[in-house]
Specification:
- The complex is a heterodimer of chains A (319) and B (278).
- In chain A, the strands form two sheets. Chain A has a seven-stranded mixed β-sheet, with helices on both faces.
- Helices cover 39% and strands 20% of the residues of chain A.
- Chain A has helices at 13-27, 45-50, 62-74, 85-89, 93-102, 130-135, 148-158, 207-220, 238-248, 263-274, 294-300, 305-317; strands at residues 31-35, 55-57, 78-84, 107-112, 141-144, 164-169, 190-194, 199-203, 225-229, 232-234, 251-258, 279-284.
- Chain A contains twelve helices and twelve strands.
- Chain A starts with 12 loop residues before the first helix and ends with a helix.
- Chain A is globular, with a radius of gyration of 19 Å.
- By secondary structure, chain B is of the alpha/beta class.
- Chain B has helices at 4-28, 33-38, 40-50, 74-83, 123-137, 156-167, 188-191, 197-203, 216-223, 245-248, 260-276, and strands spanning 30-31, 65-68, 144-149, 173-179, 207-212, 232-237, 256-257.
- In chain B, helix 6 (156-167) links the parallel strand 3 and strand 4 (173-179).
- In chain B, helix 1 packs across helix 3 (40-50) and helix 1 (4-28) packs antiparallel against helix 11.
- Classes of the chains: A alpha/beta (319), B alpha/beta (278).
- The structure holds thiamine diphosphate (TPP) and magnesium ion.
- The site of magnesium ion has 7 residues of chain B, from loops.
Chain lengths: 319, 278
């Protein structure tokens, strides 16, 4: 996997969604796309209008949409469903859980604007708990997307996978991390920076680039760390977690999510059983979201490279 | 019947609400313009002549309450409350700034005078039912006014709440459906056609009426009327973006982001109209 990170912004996720969803539907006649009045927000509206049998606007009725998607799965479709993260998780949770997972149906769910990416839509639209909810569904997959190339790769694979697949991703642009055309192997972490084993940072989503930045800052101070992109939060790459935790003896997790139920939980669940290691976290401190520009919110909730640096030092001090 | 003097006052208040909302959008640069402007007249009549409240005591128990279930119309609600003195008017211009008390969507824990937190469409309906029924059970003489979007009415919860309202005779709850014909992705009839909303509410057991929701006199007549046996539902035929010609004529007017000069132009038009009504 070629990491091409150089601190520059990537293509907008909205563009990737607007291209990839129509492309997948055109390549595979079983793919059907459902949205809840937010097509305009991910650039699919025009294609959808021209292809009414392949793209269905369900209106603002997320629970109904999830049930319909699950029903379509039962008769041979491969539904891809989109709405904002909170409405793709909380607003329709029982439908995803029972009509989807429990009934053995397969749905790819895209929840946009995770955590602080919801910015100006504010607290009602800012999911810090979506990964926790989806992680609690037996057999579900949970992805927190790092960049555009990864989004394309994950989407391509999800459409053919059985079960419930939750993809949390922004609509704007993250930092570019990977070369175009990369294949993100589901369930495997990606080592994006390997300066040394003073500590290891497991990060996902917008926090991956921040963890790389933190690694650079720490390197200047003589601290050599490894950064792993844990974009598949479930099923977690337990082997890799164990391997690096053993090698480093100090672990930090970083996520744009509540500290409860997300990556920190997933990593500590593994380590507490397999190899108890000091773990520090960068995550939202069990509070609700609020309104504001994303950079303000990142600072407000401590989702910054500087905070990762601090937590790395704290983890090392506990060795 | 509304006398001419009060009618003019309320028309002025509606214009001031629109000016306030546009000032908020200008300060932030963008926002939910269309759906904020379409309800300005209903808010003007409610806060200007119908509702019982005390800006100095926003939590007064037997006040009338407003639930703006289409929480993204917050900017117009804030303007109405600011103009009525719930807080210093100028504060509304902090819309969506870091640390603000005026977020995109209504928040009862942040803004004095906002009676309920909304933003996840559909949920305000049941909340309003609970508030109205609770007030009734407490023996208070107060009404709750619920504003629901026409797109929002796609949500199943809206109809669960409607069925409950009629079945349990929650007659101190007044439903207002902002039938501005559009939602986010386009025309409501293209996205999920809700058919005849008045007939639907009538079938659910409401006394359902349909009025020009941008007409002050018609709003006044129905909102001053007290329900008898059945709860009242008012289908407000409105225009998304009402009051600013350029917004009305823009197809994608749900959320807009225009340069400061454009906002100034809109403000100029609204202020000229206000002056003409003096
Ligand atoms: C449960 C939920 N789903 C989706 C959204 C995103 N959203 C905000 S406003 C809107 C369109 C609302 O249309 P309508 O109710 O007609 O409001 P109006 O036309 O008055 O702006 C959508 C889809 C939301 N806020 N809540
Ligand atoms: Mg509407």
């Amino acid at each position: 996997m070629k990491v091409v990170y150089n601190g520059e912004k990537d293509r907008a996720f909205k563009e990737v969604l607007g291209e990839t969803i129509p492309r997948l539907a055109e390549e595979d006649k079983d793919v059907i796309y459902l949205d809840a009045d937010l097509m305009g927000c991910i650039g699919t509206a025009k294609w959808a209008a021209a292809n009414p049998d392949r793209a269905i606007n369900c209106g603002i009725a997320e629970a109904n949409m999830m049930g319909i998607a699950a029903g379509m799965s039962a008769v041979g479709f491969k539904p891809i469903v989109h709405t904002f993260g909170p409405f793709a998780s909380r607003r329709c949770f029982d439908q995803i859980f029972l009509s989807g997972a429990y009934a053995g149906n397969s749905v790819t769910v895209i929840g946009t604007d995770p955590g602080v990416c919801a910015a100006f839509n504010g607290g009602t639209h800012m999911p810090f708990e979506d990964m926790a909810l989806y992680r609690a569904i037996p057999g579900a997959y949970v992805f927190d997307i790092t960049d555009a190339a990864m989004l394309e790769s994950v989407l391509e694979q999800c459409k053919d996978m059985e079960g419930i697949k939750y993809i949390r991703v922004g609509r704007k642009n993250n930092m570019k991390m990977y070369e175009e055309g990369m294949k993100a192997e589901i369930g495997k972490g990606i080592v994006v920076k390997e300066y040394g084993t003073d500590a290891v940072v497991f990060a996902c989503g917008i926090m991956v680039a921040m963890a790389v930045e933190a690694a650079e800052i720490l390197k200047k101070e003589g601290i050599q760390i490894t950064v792993v992109d844990m974009f598949t939060v479930k099923p977690l790459d337990e082997e890799l977690v164990e391997k690096y935790a053993k090698a480093a003896g100090a672990v930090v997790t970083a996520e744009n999510h509540n500290k409860i139920g997300g990556l920190y939980s997933a990593v500590t669940e593994v380590l507490s059983k397999k190899c108890p290691t000091p773990v520090e976290y960068v995550a939202v401190e069990d509070v609700f979201g609020e309104v504001g520009p994303q950079d303000y919110l990142e600072k407000q909730f401590g989702l910054t490279p500087e905070h990762i640096v601090e937590k790395v030092k704290a983890a090392i001090a506990r060795k | 019947m509304l006398d001419k003097q009060l009618e003019k006052e309320l028309q002025r208040f509606a214009l001031e609400i629109r000016i306030g909302a546009v000032e908020e959008f200008k300060a932030r640069g963008f926002g939910h313009v269309g759906g904020s402007l379409s309800v300005a007249d209903a808010l003007a009549v409610l806060y200007g002549a119908v509702m019982k409240y005390d800006p100095k005591n926003p939590k007064m128990e037997d006040r009338d309450k407003l639930v703006c279930s289409k929480g993204h119309a917050g900017p117009s609600v804030y303007a109405a409350l600011g103009l009525k003195g719930f807080f210093p008017y100028e504060e509304i211009k902090t819309l969506n700034q870091p640390g603000t008390n005026f977020p995109s969507h209504c928040d009862r824990q942040k803004t004095p005078g906002v009676d309920m937190t909304t933003g996840s469409l559909g949920q305000g309906t049941s909340l309003a039912v609970g508030m109205a029924m609770g007030d009734k059970l407490k023996g208070r003489d107060s009404r709750t006014f619920l504003i629901v979007g026409d797109g929002e009415s796609d949500e199943g919860q809206v109809w669960e709440a409607a069925m409950f309202t009629a079945a349990k005779k929650v007659t101190n709850l007044v439903w207002l459906i902002d039938n501005n014909k559009k939602q986010l992705d386009g025309y409501t009839k293209d996205i999920l056609d809700s058919g005849d909303l008045r007939e639907k509410f009538e079938a659910f057991g409401f006394e359902a009426v349909r009025i020009d929701g941008n007409d002050i006199a018609q709003l006044y007549d129905v909102l001053t009327k007290k329900a008898e046996d059945k709860p009242i539902a008012v289908i407000l035929d409105t225009v998304k973006g009402k009051g600013v010609k350029e917004v009305e004529e823009t197809m994608g007017n749900h959320s807009m982001n225009v340069p400061a000069e454009t906002y100034d132009k809109w403000l100029g038009e609204l202020r000229a109209e206000l002056a003409a009504l003096a």
